[in-house]
Specification:
This is Replication protein. This protein is of the alpha+beta class. It has helices at about 5, 15-20, 20-35, 50-60, 65-75; strands spanning about 40, 45-50, 80-85, 95-100. The protein is globular.
Length: about 120
């Protein structure tokens, strides 16, 4: 039982799981957490940059294919914005990620932004 208390964990809201799926909600929550501690600011947004292998180190119980599929799903749905043009070298394929908090799922009933957890 002590393992449940000794390591950081993420809470995934049922509402967002029902809207976009468990894997997507989990990765989005993880990215949101990473964004809160990131110092990478570009064009007025906070970004997190990672390769798929970096994601695999942070989520070791997922395969690289699952990570790719989940990121692609979030990008396709518009919840995740990615960019690779911030890299200094053109051969660097590391992607920069941020959550699109303007999506309606993040808005409260009165239309204000709610990203609290």
């Amino acid at each position: 039982m002590y393992l449940l208390l000794d390591e950081p964990s993420f809470t995934v809201q049922t509402t967002i799981v029902m809207e976009i799926g468990f894997n997507e909600a989990f990765l989005l929550q993880h990215l949101h957490y990473r964004s809160l501690i990131s110092t990478n600011k570009r064009d007025g947004y906070t970004w997190v940059y990672k390769t798929y292998e970096d994601w695999k180190e942070e989520i070791p119980f997922w395969s690289l294919n699952k990570i790719r599929r989940t990121i692609y799903s979030l990008e396709s749905q518009g919840y995740l914005i990615s960019n690779s043009s911030y890299n200094k070298m053109k051969i660097d394929r590391t992607k920069w990620y941020r959550v699109d908090y303007t999506k309606s799922i993040f808005l409260t009933q009165n239309g204000t932004l709610d990203v609290s957890n």
